[in-house]
Amino acid sequence: MSFKPTKYQIKCVADGRICEDSGWMLDFPNSEKPSLIRAIYEKKQLEVKEENGGLYRFADWLPIKNLLKGVSCPVTYKSEKLAKKLGLNNLYITFNGYYPAIGAKMRTCSFKETEAYSVCARLGSELRDQVMVVSSAGNTARAFAQVCSDNNIKLLLTVPEDNIGALWFEKPLNPCVKLLCTEHGSDYFDAINLGNIVCEMDGFFAEGGAKNIARRDGMSTTMMSAVTFIGRIPDYYFQAVGSGTGAIAAWEANLRFIEDGLFGSNKAKIYVSQNKPFTPMYDAWMAHSRALLPYDAEQARKDAGEIVAKVLSNRKPPYSLAGGLYDAMVDTDGDFFAVTNDEAQKACDMFKELEGIDIYHAAGVATASLIQAVENKQVKADDVIMLNITGGGEALFKEHNDIWYLKPDRVFSVDASKEEIKGFVKTNLVF
What we know:
This protein is of the alpha/beta class. It contains 14 helices and 18 strands.
């Protein structure tokens, strides 16, 4: 199938300047203050193209140059049993994971697939011979590894050693995918530091995280799935956050739908949640602070080690910068919730019992925050609510597939020197 690259321009959120995409822009040139950039698409009204398959049906609002194979898509449906339990008449679940009974077939069981298929489809020919570096707390690494393996894209992952249990697959990966880890007791921020050091080397480039428009717009397919299914923009959007990138993406898609004009003009209130005791964004929001509050590195590592939703442990999230999560929540009159491990587990159990599928603890955190909002009367029975279940179906998937685990090529201490890291990469990694 022939595909023409999506037409768009790049906008600096902080000052409104617009330019053409130079190919892999992550920041706007000469920006005076920290800011995300945003894609401004030529097509203002979304035309769903089913023939493209998977999330590429939303290609009008994805900054992509080609279509990759193996792609799936978020699935939205109207809840009955969970909705009845909570006394809600219009609860819509956007499910990202493996649940064939509703048409959800993400093999890595996480909405991080939406990022990987968008980011990798943004790659131009000028980067295909270089190695993309992705740092992750687990699910993102699994998604990028699967997509890059299937499509022969060179990838280096950096992941905390404690999280490599998340790197499971249905079969061995293409050797174009490599893995480096930071030692036991390290966290996601340490893995990011390791990735940044490698990116100083020739032949390697950073995927970009939240700064990459393709990552956010890939994640925004959750909102696109919900809005096109419901027929209107929801009143509330619930999601658990580690970086907040998915919630930012939902907000950006909402703004596009307002400009589209066919689905209403309201802004869904962004209701996000973190897992106690690791709550840096929740703490800043409760203190009415755009800036994150001081957080001792050792305490952050300890807190990250205690939460059940390990993927929610980003110490340096895109919260404060222009276009970040703080702005999204202020613009939508949003709110933050904090959820204990016990509350998250109970929500996971409730979801499995009522909706029929296992979900990740991060999705349990989001579900628990919805329960809190109902109990606090922050949502009403007839409100149109979107619950973003960011991952699920792993137990079901593993019932029907043999599982293979990716092993690290090397584990580094958190204080390893640049010379040690670069020397190993240069000498030992062949993609």
